[in-house]
Every structure is written in structure tokens, then in C-alpha cells.
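<given_protein>
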Amino acid sequence: MAGWILRALTIFSGLIVGISTPVAAQQAVGDWHGRLDVGAVSLRLGVTIARNADGSLAGTIVSPDQGPQKTPIATVIFAGPNLSFQVPSIGGSFAAKWDAGRKAWDGTWTQGSAFALVLLPGAIEAALRPQEPKPPFPYREEQADIDSVAGVRLGGTLTAPPGAGPFPAVVLITGSGPQNRDEELLGHKPFLVLADYLTRRGIAVLRYDDRGTAKSTGTFATGTSRDFAQDAEAAVRWLRQQPYIDPAHVGAIGHSEGGLIAPMVAERNPKLAFVVLLAGPGVRGAEVVAAQADAIGRGAGLSADVVAKNSALLRAISDAVIRAPDIDHARAAVAPLLATSGVPEPARAAQLTMVTSDWYRQFAAYDPVPALRALRIPLLALNGANDKQVLADQNLPAIRAATRNNPDATIVELPGLNHLFQTSKTGLPQEYGTIEETFSPAALSLIADWILKHR
């Protein structure tokens, strides 16, 4: 996430729901929207139902507050005042009756537990994102085409203050999962907001699409953190060569998994000026995964028994893939574990592919401490106290210990902020899309002040 640091989290993801046009009364075909209240979180969702050529019904469901992906729905049954459908890939279902007064489907969404859900005709209301900058900008903006390893050309954007420079500069490194240059997720564009803020403060910023994503070539699915580090190195080299950039003051900012990658880049590039870790891990990936599952499970109100079962399963999966000599052995070891998890079969197959991938096997085993210990350049490490994905109390002490011999290491826990550095109530991922703020102004100011101080 985010950069979300853990694609593995989807094994135990909660609700993946909800895009919607007006329809005639008591007709299932069309677009519908509603809100699903899950504890303290209210999730926007939408359903689109269409009629196939043979007269049967099918559609999709999407929850923009959790992600942009549309999930297929199946077994759509429309009979008079009743509507029902299944979402097999996530083990969800909806059953409702027509409410003529509201011209809506009044029913229940079931996914482990039952939740009241009313689907109204029309499109999902747009989320407010007040921090998202709009042109014209008071700085230059240029397309970047960056050659990395063979077969990978990164498309990106360089923003730089007006004038001849030379300017201090940073490369932004995204979190896990295929991310575009804005690190866009859940209706937010955190890297766009961060780049805009830093550039207005006099710092040039290069952000780029992950390999195989948006305008970058290559294949994302087979990449590992070390592969993504090579791409980040290429971005650093490209940035240093620009005429109005100060090559002696080029640094890297990594978010989530990007905070794992940035020290890798620094290890191989001694001329890197500084590193900023935004919710970067300080312990092995397997430990981060387990702590994340615990924190999110507890925060979502799961029972202690369920939380313990989920955590034990994740630890067993991570141990199995770390010990396995190759993907085939990893799959043979993990398949029986997933079979007992209660995850629906279609989702189980997708999870098996993900947790036995080269990316996850390397991530679970990788220890960031040696790279952190080797840093002798200025380091700023930030975590939100509400972060439920890369926990501050697990990772900041480890980063502090690993960098104790670095004379210029600053480690800060920011109260009230979540994994995306939003001001939050719960810190749960389900909350990200519901928050209007994209990036805490206090965190933005802290980052910019620190970089300018180290020019």
C-alpha cells in the first residue's frame, strides 16, 4: 500500500466492496451506490448491473475507499421486489427488497458478518481531496524518460522551482504493489501532494511510475525489492544529470516498501546526499506482516481467537516460503495452510500465487538492519503513531538501534498519523479513503524543513 507495504494482507482483508447512473424503479439493471458502516468506518460503495445478450444479469462491485479495482459479481437474481447477488472471490453476498418510497434496494451485505446496506440509484459521490494541487503551478514541470535495466524505461515527472538553480532534489520511491508516479490509491495522490509541497519550498522532485505501470515499461509482477531498487538507482542517476539540479544534494524519499528500498540505494550509491524513510520497516518483512495482521485485526474488532489464528497462519506461511528453496516447494508447503484458512477457493489461488512469488519470498526474509547500519548520510525516519501497517513501536526502535552510530539520524513518531501520514482516528486501512486529508501538513513541513536544513 501507498503504498501498501503488504500485498499479503489481502488474505485477511475485510470488505472489498462497491461505481454507479440512475435507473427506473424496481429495475436491477443500472448503477447503484450506498455506504457500508463497519464500526467507526463508513465506506462508499457502488454496484453496476448489466444485462447479457442471453438475458442473464451480471455486474461489478467496487469500494473506492479501499481501492479502485472492480470485482465481478455473479448469480444476480432479480425477481419482483427482491434482488440478490454473490461475490465469490471475496465470499460476499447481498440480498435486498425494493423500497418504493426511497426508490432503493434495502438489504443486507454479508461477508463473515451481516451489515445493513441500502443501494440508491446514481453515481457514487465524489470524494473531497482539498490538498490535490491544480494547475497552473508556480514551478516547472517536465516529462522524464529514464532508462533502467534492459527492457525497463520509467516514465516520470520532474518538478523544479523556477530559475537556474542549482536546486536540491529528491527521488520519490513508492510502496508495494504497482503504483503510478503519484502513488495513487483510494482516491488520494500522496506523491503528487508531497512533490507539489516540496517544489514550492525550493526542492526539485522526481517521481516515476513503477516498472510495468502506467507509462513505464517492463514487468512488475516478477519484480522484487532489489529490482525496484535498481529502478530507483536509475532515477537518481538521471536526476543528477539535469542541468539545474545540484548533484551533490540529491536524496531519496521512500514510503513503506520504498523505505526499505531507499537504504538499498544508498548502500550502492555513496554520493546520495540523504535518505527519508516514511513508514519504512526496521525489521524483517515476516515480522512486519505478523504485527500488521495483529494490529488491523484488533482494530477491526476481531476476537482474540481470530486474531491469534490469523497471525499464526501468516507466520506459518512466511516461515514456509522463507525455508523453501524455490517457488514449487513454496507452493507445496503453503497450499495446505491456505486450505484451512477459510478463504474462498478463487481468492485462495490468488493468495497462493502472491505469497509464493519471488517478491514476497524476498520481502519476508529481508533484514533491513545491515543497510540501515551502513548509512553514514543524514537520515530522517518518520512513522505515524496510528500506523497499523508498519507499526511505529515495532520499527522505529529497530531503526534507532541500527543507526545509533550515524551522527545525523533523526527518528520521529508523529502522533495521530496513519500509514499514509493522514490525520486519522483509527489508523485502519478502511479509513484511508474516507479521510479528506491526503498528507498531514505538519509532516510535509517537517520533511521540507529537514531537507533544506541539510542542503
Observations:
- DSSP finds eleven helices and 16 strands in the chain.
- The two ends are 30 Å apart (CA to CA).
- Residues 175 and 257 are 4 Å apart (CA to CA).
